[in-house]
């Protein structure tokens, strides 16, 4: 028997304009089309950023809503997750789209150094985002960019701002943050079982570490994240054709680890989400 693996596709990301390649979907229409292709390839969860008209990272709730409606129409049952991230954006804007009540939203539980700046998530801001997600019955995906963020999530549970079981995403390979080391991932998994019992987890490998981390997740019993947000290269010598191609790369090896892509219904059950309407 193979065990289901939730494959998350992070379709666009918050890269500056100069780093956008033709493969990255930018407009809501492009994002919906790319998500549908990834869904048909085996993804059951989509992580969504939007962009302004000048292609800079955006917070427009109407654009989030447009992508949400298109994905719901063309990808039945797929879990829709909004990003509240985006370096340099006004903190007040980062949760503005939550009124549309997606299934999930990202929640980084602390600040961290990135290659050229600080990803700022001060405690009061984290508490306010967590409270807003509670208000709208949105399940957070706790993004762990540094080890302390795991324990910060446990404190949010104690304060009643985060419901159990918690879903975690370990982000590995960003310079100045957590390195992509298997021993470190194993430590994070072990600690999460102690401080957040019953939690589920996935891990994202950044850039050249993406597929290696995908394989660790398959082997260690977690879930996988892929997509052009984290890695615009398919391998060492060419750009990815699409998000769907990156999803398919996981699907093609999943059986080697006794795993298979989770259906949307299975993914919702694993994460404790309500069935799709």
Task: Enumerate the strands of the largest sheet in spatial order, edge to edge or round the barrel.
Answer: 2-3-6-7-10-11-12-13
Overall CATH class:
Alpha Beta
Instruction: Please give the CATH architecture.
Output: Alpha-Beta Barrel
The share of residues in helices is 25-40%
Residue ranges: pLDDT <50 for 5 or more in a row? none
CATH superfamily: Aldolase class I
Secondary structure category: alpha/beta
The figure for the number of domains is 1
Explain what you see.
The protein is an alpha/beta fold. It has a single domain, classed as Aldolase class I (TIM Barrel, Alpha-Beta Barrel), CATH 3.20.20. 35% of the residues lie in helices and 20% in strands. The chain has 8 helices and 14 strands. Strands 2-3-6-7-10-11-12-13 form an 8-stranded parallel beta barrel, surrounded by 8 helices. A two-stranded parallel sheet has the order 1-14. It has a two-stranded antiparallel ribbon with strand order 4-5. Helix 1 runs parallel beside helix 7 and helix 6 runs parallel beside helix 7. The longest helix is centred in the first third of the chain and has 14 residues. The radius of gyration is 17 Å and the shape is globular.
SSE blueprint:
Blueprint: E1 3-5, E2 7-10, H1 28-41, E3 45-48, E4 50-51, E5 57-58, H2 61-74, E6 79-82, E7 104-108, E8 112-114, E9 117-119, H3 123-135, E10 139-144, H4 147-158, E11 167-172, H5 182-195, E12 200-205, H6 210-220, E13 223-226, H7 243-254, E14 259-261, H8 264-271
Parallel strand pairs: 1-14, 2-3, 2-13, 3-6, 6-7, 7-10, 10-11, 11-12, 12-13
Antiparallel strand pairs: 4-5, 8-9
Helix pairs in contact: 1-2, 1-7, 4-5, 6-7
